TrEMBL record:
<dbReference type="InterPro" id="IPR044839">
    <property type="entry name" value="NDR1-like"/>
</dbReference>
<keyword id="KW-0472">Membrane</keyword>
<dbReference type="GO" id="GO:0005886">
    <property type="term" value="C:plasma membrane"/>
</dbReference>
<dbReference type="InterPro" id="IPR004864">
    <property type="entry name" value="LEA_2"/>
</dbReference>
<keyword id="KW-1133">Transmembrane helix</keyword>
<dbReference type="Pfam" id="PF03168">
    <property type="entry name" value="LEA_2"/>
</dbReference>
<dbReference type="GO" id="GO:0098542">
    <property type="term" value="P:defense response to other organism"/>
</dbReference>
<protein>
    <recommendedName>
        <fullName>Late embryogenesis abundant protein LEA-2 subgroup domain-containing protein</fullName>
    </recommendedName>
</protein>
<feature type="domain" description="Late embryogenesis abundant protein LEA-2 subgroup">
    <location>
        <begin position="73"/>
        <end position="172"/>
    </location>
</feature>
<keyword id="KW-0812">Transmembrane</keyword>
<feature type="transmembrane region" description="Helical">
    <location>
        <begin position="12"/>
        <end position="38"/>
    </location>
</feature>
């Protein structure tokens, strides 16, 4: 075969490959765009809508221990029209004070559930601290709160979820919500005037 023929054939093959690549990229982009337009994903929202604490008592330091039963109501809102959610597990933690390093007071497990699209699910959670060990400084502050009649906590939610569109299920995601500060009055009357606390939600 003459050299020019071989070259022109190589150019034709190259042109074909480039065209195929361009078409593939365009089709992939179109698929993503159509998916986005059809599904229109919206963020999941969490709100603490009720909080009450009972049996709140703490021993004096050193070796302080806390008793408390936290009754928390959370609204988990899935505003999506086409996306439903499967919660495989959900844990709720009550931490004392604000910030990352706030000490943990109580924990609760919520059984998994399925949340349909456009649905707000109310979660009623009871987290119990039974003779939970507390550092000296936090114990003194908690005792001060007891006397003052209100305690400020941080509610953290950690869940493992899948998203479903029709029958297609996504991979597992870790969802975290942080609600802070949640100020809980210790008198039985205060639960009636609890102001809702919105949470920061992150999915990874
Ligand atoms: C906490 O509760 C346990 C029993 O559940 C009790 O023995 C302990 O004295 C209580 N502590 C406080 C500080 O009330
Ligand atoms: C709180 O605990 C103290 C002991 O640390 C106990 O004397 C007191 O009765 C307890 N109060 C309540 C309301 O349980
Ligand atoms: C949300 O879904 C749950 C579980 O399917 C259901 O019990 C609840 O009534 C729904 N809430 C609304 C507001 O549709």
């Amino acid at each position: 075969m003459p050299a020019t023929g071989r070259r022109s054939r190589r150019v034709a093959v190259l042109r074909c490959i480039v065209a195929a690549l361009v078409v593939t990229v365009l089709l992939a982009g179109l698929a993503v765009l159509v998916f986005w337009l059809v599904v229109r994903p919206k963020p999941i929202e969490y709100t603490v809508t009720g909080a009450l604490v009972k049996h709140f008592n703490i021993t004096a330091p050193p070796a302080a221990a806390l008793n408390a039963t936290f009754y928390l109501t959370l609204a988990a809102d899935n505003p999506n029209r086409r996306v439903s959610m499967r919660y495989e597990s959900l844990e709720l933690y009550v931490h004392y004070g604000e910030g990352e390093g706030a000490p943990q007071l109580a924990i609760a497990d919520v059984p998994g559930f399925h949340q349909p699209s456009r649905n707000e699910t109310r979660l009623e959670v009871r987290a119990v601290a039974r003779a939970a060990p507390v550092a000296d400084r936090a114990a003194r502050e908690l005792d001060h709160d007891r006397a003052a009649g209100q305690v400020a906590v941080q509610v953290r939610v950690s869940a493992r979820v899948c998203f479903e569109v029709g029958r297609v299920r996504s991979r597992h995601y870790d969802m975290r919500a942080v609600c802070s500060p949640v100020v809980i009055g210790l008198s039985p009357k205060s639960a009636r005037s609890f102001p809702s606390v919105p949470c920061d939600v992150a999915i990874s």
